[in-house]
Amino acid sequence: MRATDVHAHVIVPELLRDxxxxxxxxxxxxxxxxxxxxxxxxxxxxxFVDAATILDCEESLGIDHVLLCPWVPLLFYGVDxxxxxxxxxxxxxxxxxxxxxxxxxxxxxxxxxxxxxxxAAAELEELMALGQVAGVEITASVAGVYLGDPRFEPFWDxxxxxxxxxxxxxxTRGFDDPVFGDYYLQNLVGNxxxxxxxxxxxxxxxxxxxxxxxxxxxxxxxxxxxxxxxRLRHGQEAIAAAGARSGEPADVAxxxxxxxxxxxxxxxxxxxxxxVGADRVMLGSDYPFDMADPHPVETVRAAGLSNExxxxxxxxxxxxxxxxxxxxx
Length: 329
Description:
The protein has helices at 51-60, 81-101, 117-130, 153-162, 185-204, 207-210, 229-238, 240-243, 250-254, 266-276, 296-301, 307-328; strands at 4-10, 28-30, 33-36, 39-41, 65-70, 106-108, 135-139, 141-142, 145-146, 165-169, 215-218, 258-260, 281-282. By secondary structure, it is of the alpha/beta class. It has one domain (70-287, 295-328): Metal-dependent hydrolases (TIM Barrel, Alpha-Beta Barrel), CATH 3.20.20. Strands 7-10-11-12-13 form a 5-stranded parallel β-sheet. Strands 1-5-6 form a 3-stranded parallel β-sheet. The chain is globular and about 55 Å long. The two termini are 29 Å apart.
């Protein structure tokens, strides 16, 4: 049985401090420990840089093709847009190299400077024209602004026009309430909450409705967006502010998203597939982190799906989508 992992992170060697010791924005790695911006990050539990080792780890999980994307802190939204563009291009060159070196086993998502949506749109157009990336990874918010905000329209226009896959991932540090410092809640609850907020923002802001050709993949099974579909729909009907920018019922709009399988619960994954359709869900692991699904293929197989739906989630949907995007260039 084939399997494609659509949620796996990598740090390309082109960004490491070793390449340019004078640029202290670059990460330093020691084993699975990363130092970045004065912080020491220990949440990675598997190889993060060496592609061959990453592919071996994925193969041990039953996965033969990996869609690699940047580690979120290396999207660099907090710097000047022109500097952000320079760093994105360094990263994209490294990602394109990985794909060229492993064309049968690796696809990649690049990076754009979303702190300037018009600049990000132009860079996305250029990236997609080259045919080296399947799309880009972005975060659920940029400087506290969520993705349904009108300022991101140039980017969404470009994403729809180019057919790019847009993977929406939490910033991983979206909330500063003290409670998120307890019990690892920043990750356990904060990360899926960020995804939920931005998905709801896009639905109620009409983004996903105005751009029906968008391919937007939500991390972590979409967070809690599915559980809130009735509440959002009722809000559209009963609260003027909630329904002002969207004409499509929320539960219909939610089905326009794509979802990964990182739910850590086969029964919940089955509910997701039944709610949005097997053609909207794709296997993901969240490699190489401590909160990754350690056995993503087994999670899908334990969900009790039909043989056809199981094959679609494991590899069919991803293969079709990647083929559509890359052949369009």
